[in-house]
Amino acid sequence: MKQLMIVLALLFLLLNTVFTNALASTHQRISQTSSILGEERTIQIALPENYLANPTATYPVIYLLDGDYNFKAVTGMLDMLANKGQLIPDVIVVAISDNGTSSYRNYMTPSFSDKQPDSASKFADYLENEVKPYIQSHYRTANNHILVGQSIGGLFVLNTLIENPARFNHYIAISPSVWVGDNAIVKKAKNTLHTKTFSTVSLHLSLADETRMGQYDLINYLDLNPQASLTWQFTHYPDENHNSVGLIALRNSLKQIFNGWHINERALATKSPQSVLTHYANLQTQWQLKQAIPTNVAHSLMRYHYRNNLVEKVPEFIKNAKLTLPQSSQVLTAKQANYVGHFHSPKNALALLKDAEKEHEYSIEHFKAIAGVYEQLGEQQNAQTYYKKALALAEKQQVAQWQLNILAAKVK
Q1: What does the radius of gyration of the chain's CA atoms come to, in whole angstroms?
Q2: Ramachandran region of residue 48, left (φ > 0), alpha (ψ -120 to 50) or beta?
Q3: Are 32 and 131 a contacting pair, CB within 8 Å?
Q4: What tens digit of pLDDT does each residue of 116-154 get?
Q5: Is 29 left (phi over 0), alpha (psi -120 to 50) or beta?
Q6: CB-based contacts of 100: which residues, under 8 Å, 6+ apart?
Q7: Residue pLDDT, tens place only, 214-241
């Protein structure tokens, strides 16, 4: 009995270590046997680069069909759109791999006849009852789910919306193959969609330079039969082809879905700090997520106080801002310290950052900020200590090579 307990304990430690190491990687590939489909299925998962830096943040999830084909292109685009550009919140990408072309087409094509097996509905059940629960139980997901498909995958997106609109918050159908079955999906929409009861969802349709995809029949139906719970948009890209339209359509659709996350510099200059905090608090409630505000917004909040001679109000404002948007604590503290160090005293800036060090022990940026202030003070040994801490954390979190290069160059 004692030996069994020891074996079980070792097994638990091993599994815990494997899972911890898996989370340290921002890109993961997982295979599982689906009881619904009766076969082994594979998904790829891309976590935001700063996923481990803020343990209380939550993220919308993009479920990407034909995932092996699209994964690298989409995650690369999102690295610029969300991580670096901060035009939308950070997201988790779940790329659904296919098991070959024939299998993929079979699962993506809806049945429009009782004589055909309803493989598309079965695959939708697989997403809803196996993939989504797995993602939600293993990662910090927001209650905000986006289904993306192109071509025959776009037809699957439309079919899922028509059959079970409440399964996702947003549907992105890129050049969908509406023509299949003599535009049968349009007939299905006419017969079925108005019978469904659901909270507000959005549909984002797009079309490249194709002339025979059948979309305009669907658009005409949506236009003549508005539904309060369904918002939809259509964008035509006549200068893109069927293969090139995917990234640009997805990028623009995500900017529409998360409209308001990015506020440009001119607009920020006209807003009061409190109105900005209220804006982001309302967005996060509406989108059911918890994330830090964009860096340029935190910078604008500090600049407002200094330009308007309200410096004495900064500590109380920052305190209240952290209560309103707690996931923004690190970026607000860093900006506050940056201004204090520049206009007042690097020692005071260091005190601010050191007071928050324990709170942000998983933040590479926080360690970098502390190291930078030590450099200002001429304390090179302490600066090296924190650059090394930042580099070790960056390696553990497997951040992009360019970040590792910057930190490695700082370590002597």
Answers
A1: 24
A2: beta
A3: no
A4: 778 999 999 999 999 999 999 999 999 999 999 999 999
A5: beta
A6: none
A7: 899 999 999 999 998 999 999 999 999 9
**CB of 169 within 8 A of CB of 91?**
no
Tens digits of residue pLDDT in 51-68:
999 999 999 999 999 999
The pLDDT of residue 233 is 97
Phi and psi at 21, nearest 5°, equal: -65, -35
CB of 287 closer than 8 Å to CB of 142: yes
The amino acid at 223 = D
Number of helical H runs and strand E runs in the chain: 18, 8
DSSP of 9-58, one letter per residue? Answer: HHHHHHHHHHHHHHHHSSEEEEEEEETTTTEEEEEEEE--TTTTT-TT-B
- DSSP reduced 3-state for 64: strand
| pLDDT score of 115 | 67
Which residue has 């097996």 as its token pair?
Answer: 117
What is the distance between the alpha carbons of residues 218 and 49, in angstroms, rounded to a whole number?
38
Backbone region of residue 177 per phi and psi (left: phi > 0; alpha: psi in -120 to 50; beta: other values): beta
| DSSP structure class, residue 362 | T
**Angle at alpha carbon of residue 144, lines to 25 and 253, rounded to 5°:** 90
Please name which of 190, 63, 37, 171 lies closest in space to residue 117, comparing C-alpha atoms: 37
- CA separation, residue 25 to residues 19, 62, 68, 87, 160 (Å): 10, 18, 18, 24, 31
Taking residue 25's Cβ as centre, other Cβ atoms within 10 Å add up to: 13
Name the phi and psi angles at 42, rounded to 5.
Answer: -125, 140
178-193: b (≥16 Cβ within 10 Å) or e: bbbbebbbbebbeeeb
- How many CB atoms within 10 Å of residue 10? 10
**Assessment of whether the complete model's pTM goes beyond 0.85:** yes
CB of 209 closer than 8 Å to CB of 241: yes
Q: Of the candidates 182, 189, 191, 194, which has an alpha carbon nearest to the alpha carbon of residue 205?
A: 189
Write the single-letter amino acid at 148.
V
Angle at 182 between CA 180 and CA 188, to 5 degrees: 80
- At 12 the pLDDT is 39
Amino acid at 373: V
3 — pLDDT class (breaks 50, 70, 90) = low
Containing 233, the helix (H) or strand (E) segment is strand 230-236
